[in-house]
């Protein structure tokens, strides 16, 4: 995700970007399904070593979160998701529509009940393996109690029928600003980062948890739908409506989901090694955005030289025809606001390269915990700045020196790079401040060794989640020296360490 930045010149650029006790009504309206078991409150975990019976362990509730310190209720315990299948019957902008989610999962413990992350929307019916299940809301937690406990290791299927609200959104006081469903004049785009996917569909909503997704979206005549991955096919209904089916192809974190609906033109091209590139552009913006969109093959080639092969099967730019505050790295289809593609080329390329970089660092190599966000945003900012340095933008060293001068202030206001709070997650320290850590590492080990560290990072953890400890350990192995004593003060210290090779760089005094 692209955040606001301040260049060394001082020019500020625009962003690059409980309800409890709800009953579940059967669709037929005849039955009321209630919950018979008490809710496992925040922080509750299944008891370790639950006693065994003749038929196996005693079933217990799955945890309502995976224990991320910044967002304790993000994700859910007791099962892993094998696939989501999402059905949306879109009707008109800002108009509720019928939706359904099928969650194919496997129990990792004997489950008496389990949670899904699901916020808002009107719930109609929940079934588990075809049988009605009790369901109750507690804030963003949908607590599901199946008719029969689910044995450990058993595959099971949850179906949730609901009415989706395409106006539902939330706000953060950082680079994200408004997120969730983002209405456009003729449809919507989705900005789910960091925890907005639960406003779209019931999910395991944490960046370290991924599963493939099938999207089936029905739209009115003349309106298109697009989602992550490959268009499997379209089916025209007798009433003129069209059902679009997409397959994400590879597992995807809920925060990286994209579902856009509108009057679009699909522009196909080709990247390095024949990589399919498909841009999705509002009909009236095709010509005006073509100049910068056509640079994508060059951006892909430039990043492949530094980070190795692009890690997904296709790519494209989705032009957001609305007042989006951010650009966003939704997997295989980066969202870039129209205004970013209608202005200065240097600024536009910075946004485009930033979101594309995320496909290596953040999408393919997922963060293990939210406190590891510096690994995602710091890398994207670093390569954005490096590309800009080489293509007419501000010099990298000048930008890094300006960030160094402000680093103690950012530490004071927003926490060290690897020590954010929920409220400061998407503040400038996770962007320019974290890019500075990578610059310092490069100055410490040299450009050639730094390049080997970077390629090893995105190769070793491709398709996996990794965190700060993993990065320090890998960098140390590649460099042939223990880099922990160097990196930990940069990532966790109260004060900014000296910059290797630049003894004249000074940190500005901190103001309260």
Automatic annotation (TrEMBL):
Extent of the signal sequence: none
Domain Aminopeptidase N-like N-terminal: residue ranges: 83-252
Cofactor(s) named in the record: Zn(2+)
Entry's transmembrane regions: 20-41
E.C. number: 3.4.11.2
Subcellular localization: Cytoplasm
Residue span of region Disordered: 38-69
Record bears the keyword Transferase: no
Molecular function per GO: aminopeptidase activity
Reactions it catalyzes: Release of an N-terminal amino acid, Xaa-|-Yaa- from a peptide, amide or arylamide. Xaa is preferably Ala, but may be most amino acids including Pro (slow action). When a terminal hydrophobic residue is followed by a prolyl residue, the two may be released as an intact Xaa-Pro dipeptide
Chief location: cytoplasm
Biased composition (Low complexity): 38-57
UniProt keyword annotations, A-Z: Aminopeptidase, Cytoplasm, Hydrolase, Membrane, Metal-binding, Metalloprotease, Protease, Transmembrane, Transmembrane helix, Zinc
Boundaries of every Peptidase M1 membrane alanine aminopeptidase domain copy: 301-490
Family, per entry: Belongs to the peptidase M1 family.
Protein name: Aminopeptidase N
Native source organism of the sequence: Streptomyces eurythermus
């Amino acid at each position: 995700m692209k955040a606001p930045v301040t260049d060394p010149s001082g020019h500020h650029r625009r962003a690059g970007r409980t309800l409890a006790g709800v009953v579940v009504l059967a669709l037929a309206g005849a039955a009321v399904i209630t919950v018979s078991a008490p809710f496992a409150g925040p922080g509750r975990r299944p008891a370790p070593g639950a006693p065994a019976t003749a038929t196996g362990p005693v079933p217990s509730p799955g945890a309502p979160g995976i224990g991320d310190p910044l967002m304790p209720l993000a994700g859910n315990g007791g099962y892993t998701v094998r696939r989501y299948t999402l059905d949306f019957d879109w009707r008109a902008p800002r108009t509720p529509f019928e939706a359904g989610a099928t969650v194919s999962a496997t129990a990792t413990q004997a489950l008496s009940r389990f949670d899904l992350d699901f916020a808002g929307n009107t719930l109609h019916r929940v079934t588990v393996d075809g049988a009605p299940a009790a369901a109750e809301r507690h804030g963003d937690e949908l607590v599901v109690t199946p008719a029969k406990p689910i044995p450990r290791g058993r595959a099971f299927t949850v179906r949730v029928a609901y009415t989706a609200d395409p106006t539902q959104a939330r706000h953060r006081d950082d680079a994200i600003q408004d997120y969730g469903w983002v209405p456009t004049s003729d449809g919507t785009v989705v900005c789910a980062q960091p925890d907005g996917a639960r406003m779209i569909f019931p999910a395991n909503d944490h960046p370290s948890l991924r599963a493939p997704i099938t999207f089936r979206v029905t739209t009115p005549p003349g309106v298109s739908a697009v989602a992550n991955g490959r268009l499997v096919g379209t089916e025209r209904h007798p009433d003129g409506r069209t059902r679009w089916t997409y397959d994400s192809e590879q597992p995807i974190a809920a925060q990286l989901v994209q579902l856009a609906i509108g009057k679009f033109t699909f522009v196909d091209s080709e990247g390095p090694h024949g990589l399919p590139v498909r841009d999705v552009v509002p009909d009236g913006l095709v010509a005006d955005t073509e100049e910068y969109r056509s640079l994508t093959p060059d951006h892909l080639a430039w990043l492949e030289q530094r980070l190795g092969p692009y890690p997904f099967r296709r790519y494209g730019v989705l032009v957001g025809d609305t007042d989006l505050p951010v650009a966003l790295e939704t997997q295989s289809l980066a969202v870039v606001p129209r205004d970013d593609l209608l202005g200065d080329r240097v600024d536009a390329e910075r946004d485009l390269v930033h979101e594309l970089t995320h496909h290596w660092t953040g999408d393919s190599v997922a963060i293990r915990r939210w406190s590891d966000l510096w690994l995602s945003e710091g890398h994207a900012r670093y390569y954005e700045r490096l590309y800009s340095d080489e293509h007419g933008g501000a010099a990298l060293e000048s930008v890094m020196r300006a960030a160094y001068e402000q680093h103690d202030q950012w530490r004071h206001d927003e926490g060290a790079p690897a020590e954010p709070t929920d409220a400061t997650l998407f503040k400038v320290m996770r962007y320019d401040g974290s890019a500075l850590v990578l610059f310092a590492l490069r100055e410490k080990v040299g450009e050639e060794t730094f390049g080997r560290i970077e390629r090893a990072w995105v190769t070793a953890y491709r398709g996996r989640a990794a965190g700060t400890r993993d990065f320090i350990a890998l960098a140390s192995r590649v460099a042939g020296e223990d880099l922990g004593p160097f990196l930990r003060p940069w990532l966790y210290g109260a004060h900014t360490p000296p910059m290797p090779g630049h003894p004249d760089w000074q940190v500005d005094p901190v103001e309260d």
